[in-house]
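Input for the complex:
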Amino acid sequence: MYFAGVDIGSTMTKVVIISDKGDPISIVKGPTGPEHRSLASEVMNVGLTQANLQLNEINYIVATGYGRFNVPFSDRQITELSCHAAGVHNLFPDAKTVIDIGGQDAKCMKIENGKLGDFVMNDKCAAGTGRFLEVIASALGIKVEDLGAISSKSTRDIQISNICTIFAQQEVVSRLSEGESLENILAGLHTALASRVVALAERLSIEPSVVLTGGVAKNTGIVRAMKEKIGHDIRVPEEPLITGALGAALMARRHVLDAIKNNTPVVTSQRRLDKTTLLYGEH
Amino acid sequence: MTWYMGIDIGSAFSKGMIVKDTEPVCFHILRSGINYRTTANLIRQELLSRVNLSQNDISDTVATGSGANNVDFAGRKVSDIICTARGMNSLYPQVRTIIDAAGQSTKLILIDSHGRVTSFVVSEKCAAGSGWFIEVIANVLRVDLNEFSQLSRLSKNPVAFSTSCAVFGESEAISRVAEGIPKEDIAAGVNKTTANKISSLSKKISLEEPCTICGGGALNTGLVQAIELELKIKLLLPPQPQTLSCLGAAVIARTSSS
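Predicted:
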């Protein structure tokens, strides 16, 4: 048996296919695209090719992420909060707190008995999300993936006093013109983002062990700043982007195994592997 | 005859005014640009040449706004809240509340019959609701502020924005354009979101009528309409809404030297 999870995030689309034992046999990431057009089908096709499978050989498919209603071949939709909790629990069975910093949101989830407990999230303000770094990196003409390495060469702590992404961007430009080094400014930005996310997470209790996921977790400068703010170690999955899709696949597997155990039928939807557009207002 | 000058260096626009005794004589507005010092000097030159005077004819100059420190030729600096209050009071003595919709901040100012500030609230931590946000969306729609304002008034069906964040709002506007939503509905949606933001700020202070609006935001009549609808009040609209603070600065220059 095979199961798949599809996670349509604001920036990236992720697909994970697992075997009946729960082992990943295919992991694919692709950009969601600027016009929010769903590339789910394309990413899924790559995943199927990698796994050497046909769509109808997948027993159950769960879609998650904010574009989950736009996956025409999924059998069920589950929120990314539940999926992240399931995915992280699978990778780190002792994890109690998950902090996910995505392209357009940030969330903190507690894991209780392997399932989602309490959670908080911010998707109303760009400060404290991946977008904060994207906006400023693009204003400075730097690639987002280089931010961590550059900031590691900082020589002193500086404070970015503006919270708002727009105002922080202007502050960064004026700091540069005052002669502050790029390295120090980027380190200051990482601290600013980390403070914002930790302030959100502190609305829950941050219990170890803490796992950081989402695209921003690839930024070593953020991981360092988050460790400093939280005051203890943070673990980052080898591939921090795919915990949601992995969790979705695991939930697909659980659904089918439960159905077999209870002797109830597994109902799959009419799957279509074609392109569609995102249906606004449904998420 | 005695002449006084007021200079307001704001985050987006800089304004200057000369008053003769109690009467405004001329004003000039420029984009603040990156060098506030140069901008301040350009405004001074333009004002002086219009009335055919030299700097020595000006009895006193007061500077205000976030870039007031760059006005080397000013006798002193006064806060823009106080200047706006004084400017508005000299124009409309009956006004009790001022909504100042500026480039990077929004202020609500309560004043008494002498133009003294009795209370105020400022929103300057977040670009949501600021003139900056409206400029960005006007850019997305490829219209200037004037067209933006007119478009917005044509809309019967303003788009609902899911956040008031300026960054997310820009992406949302781009998505709506891509979906083929009419420009007027997007413009009206932005004005509505901005009016909401001002309305929630007004809950921190008790508005007293008559109420007026100034700052660059007041040039956006679609926004003015949206605020009137949201707050359920009538707003008094001054003829040159961007010049209230530099008028106030000039008035203060006159009062303090006489």
